[in-house]
From TrEMBL:
Residue span, Peptidase S8/S53 domain: 61-307
Biological process annotations from GO: proteolysis
Keyword Cell membrane attributed: yes
Family: Belongs to the peptidase S8 family.
Subcellular location, record wording: Cell membrane
Species: Micromonospora citrea
PANTHER family noted in UniProt: CEREVISIN-RELATED (PTHR43806:SF11), PEPTIDASE S8 (PTHR43806)
Protein name, UniProt field: Type VII secretion-associated serine protease mycosin
Amino acid sequence: MRLRATLGALSLSASMLVTPSPKPAIWNLIAQKPQGVDRIRADQWHLRYLRVDQAHKITRGEGITVAVPDTGVDPHPDLRNNLLAGKDFILGGVGNGRQDPNGHGTGMAGLIAAHGRSGRMGALGIAPRAQILPIMSSSANNLGEADNLALGIEFAVSNGADVISISSGGGTNARLTQAVRMALTSDVVVVAGSGNLPFDQAVAYPAREPGVVAVGGIDKAGRHAAVAVAGPEIDVVAPAVDIYSTSIDGKYRKGTGTSNSTAIVAGAAALIRSKYPHLPASEVAHRLTATAIDKGPPGRDDEYGYGVIDLVAALTADVPPLGFGSATAGAPAHTTSTATAIAEPDDEGDDGATARGLATLGVIVAAGGAWALIARRRRRGDDPPPRVSR
């Protein structure tokens, strides 16, 4: 069974969506020039929108590993210090995931953990001291077998991933469903994108799997992104329009789609896991939803889920645990009056993340309070037919 490997119906211009083609994920490549490097941080509007600088006074994702099953990850200068050796499941299973013929996986990894260059230059990720476990599970034409994604997820779990960021979607099969559920029961935060119009008409798999953090998108004005699929499974939203990140061959790229918002939320999950190393994966997801900024109709809705992620609140709020009293995944949280801050380091390339001092405790269980995050969601009965090459 094939599924489209990217959820980035990416823009050729700020207002024109790519029409279906054999390569539905097309970004604007930005040549590596001094002025390009200088301006890239300023072009990353989502950093300011999400108050990333304030979140980085609390944590930068130290000690956390985020797996990116995608088209592989190129060792971009803004990212390579955080890049582990991973695995290829497309090229005969012999590579280490540190090559990317397409650039999509490199872009997603950069949104999560790019460390930039000295002097606040280059791209910056949400968790710039997290490490990326690169996995090539999709081919250069943005298509991948569901079985390859399943292999990538299994590899991520067996190699210590704390978060898995899945900017892909489609139908599913028994192998992929089993892999996703295995990750959830192994105390891994699984984040996946809802999908993009016109390629997707309903929330894609694995985003619709109970327990997965399903991510939609917003534009620069904080409104529902026109490209993002809406549905009852959406948990949270994040910036998805005109997002700048790393690409192959030292270049940068701009794109639009829920691939981007998914990677951003995965970075947020990495920050939470770094700040709260004892917190089980289900509680990390709960923090994301409980502290989200409500948008649209009051309460959860199909476009925004519980709202736009709030990094600072997710790191500082007093959030009752799942199953505590009448608290639910959508209950509002109380932010602390002061945040425990660390000195903000320069945006220089790191030599890798430091080891996490304490391991996370607890695993997600398939019943009881840990599943309260998704208990109130309405689920569709049947999977859509698998998507094929366009």
